[in-house]
Design goal:
The protein is globular and about 85 Å long. Helix 8 packs across helix 9 and helix 10 crosses helix 11. The chain has two domains: 42-234; 235-401, GMP Synthetase, Chain A, domain 3, CATH 3.30.300. Strands 1, 2, 3, 4, 5, 6, 7, 8 and 9 form a nine-stranded mixed beta sheet that branches. Strands 10-11-12-13 form a four-stranded mixed beta sheet, sandwiched between helices. With 401 residues, it is of the alpha/beta class. It has twelve helices and 13 strands. The longest helix is centred in the C-terminal third of the chain and has 28 residues, at 316-343.
Length: 401
């Protein structure tokens, strides 16, 4: 009896399934995921964006990759730079279409430059545009122009790179590995610090220099923010000190010290130490509801990379002296960074945020006057550097005469 019922029901179910399948396939002809499809030939790749302030108006610039023709082959063409102004950055960006017959692929832009006039004024409008706009890549590398407008940076070149603005992303990354002067900053990190109490942003600066009659881009210092505007900058030494104060692990960099026992400022006997890793551990020392000092302990390691004088230096005693001199050099750079930023009343180290995490009640009482309080906090710095390797030689090179 059950089998008879099954044979009666199954044909009906199979018929319904066939109808449903037909309707599903038929509906696919009227539903497509490409409703906003844009042909490749109607687009242009954006390499970098620039936000400026020009005559009191919002100025927006873009560097575009010029599509290569069939005659040009695989050789990249020179970039196309377009600038427009308007009452808002969105209007300025869309005005680009008044002279561009292709739609820029904005999300391809991996670098953003903020002009110095805008950075020293008020970033409220620009920050809202960058945070809100879905076409602005939040992982873009951020820079502040120094001594020039952001738009002028578009006209300068970068050795080897066809698209100078896009090349800045490689430049900041490679110099950090080799020199360790400046810390790369992404847009999302910048916006987070801009909106977080107890920490201020610090952004690498880019300027223009003359080289063989050409205008070339060059990294030059770190812009220090207080609120929504730049209030000063760190030089190379101070910028490296700021990097050493990072609570995150840092790798790469170079430190130059004098030969042990020959610490005269005019001495030309130097040793190059390559940094392999470093990390700062920062703890506020609180007593009776007040901050006594910030205790900063840095653990670092590095390798003996070069000496520019003749003589055996890699003895057991001298290795200890080299480590001590490296400790002093790192501490000197960190102290320089702290003194500069305290003079600017700008907590780019995030000491306020550390206090807020460890003692929220205390932070509530300090937050309103934090810039002034930060300027007077004593820093107790200790550095523990260890020399690990000497590369291909474990003794100094000997010259035969």
């Amino acid at each position: 009896m059950k089998s008879d019922k099954i044979t009666q029901i199954c044909p009906i179910n199979r018929g319904k399934a066939a109808v449903l399948l037909f309707l599903l396939v038929f509906a696919l002809f009227f539903t497509s995921g490409c409703w906003n499809q844009i042909e490749v030939v109607d687009t242009a790749e954006a390499e970098g964006l620039v936000l400026d302030l020009e005559g009191g108006q919002s100025s927006f610039s873009v560097q575009l990759a010029k599509p290569s023709s069939s005659q040009a082959g695989t050789q990249p063409s020179k970039p196309v730079n377009i600038t427009q102004t308007g009452s808002t950055y969105t209007e300025s960006a869309r005005k680009v279409m008044l002279s561009l017959p292709r739609l820029p692929l904005w999300a391809h832009a991996g670098v953003i430059i903020i002009g110095q006039d805008l950075a020293h004024a008020d970033l409220a409008q620009a920050a809202d545009f960058m945070a809100r706009n879905r076409n602005v890549r939040k992982t873009s590398s951020l820079f502040i122009s120094k001594g020039v407008s952001g738009k002028e940076c578009l006209e300068a070149s970068l050795p080897i790179e066809t698209y100078s603005i896009a090349g800045l992303k490689k430049l900041i990354r490679i110099q950090e590995e080799q020199l360790g002067f400046y810390m790369p900053v992404n847009l999302d990190v910048f916006l987070e610090k801009l909106a977080t109490p107890g920490i201020q942003p610090a952004v690498p600066q880019v300027t223009i220099m003359e080289m063989d009659g050409q205008k070339m881009l060059r990294l030059d210092g770190t812009a220090v923010f207080k609120g929504r505007q730049v209030v000063g900058s760190l030089d190379e030494v101070e910028s490296q000190g700021y990097r050493f104060l990072s609570p995150k692990m840092i790798t790469g960099g170079l430190i130059t010290i004098h030969k042990p026992g020959d610490n005269s400022p005019d001495s030309n006997k130097l040793i190059a130490i390559e940094l392999t890793r470093s990390q700062a551990h920062i703890n506020p020392q609180i007593k009776d509801g007040k901050i006594k000092k910030m205790q900063i302990k840095v653990e670092a390691e590095g390798n003996f990379h070069e000496q520019n004088f003749v003589g055996q230096i890699l003895t057991l005693d001298d290795v200890k002296k080299i480590e001590e001199l490296t400790n002093e050099e790192i501490k000197k750079k960190m102290t320089a960074a702290i003194m500069k930023t305290q003079g600017l009343n700008s907590d780019i180290f995030g000491w306020g945020r550390i206090i807020a995490q460890k003692n929220p009640a205390l932070w509530q009482s300090l937050e309103a006057d934090w810039p002034v309080i930060f300027a007077g906090i004593e820093a107790d710095i200790s550095v523990d550097f260890s020399l690990r390797r000497t590369y291909l030689l474990d003794k100094s090179f000997e010259f035969k005469e």
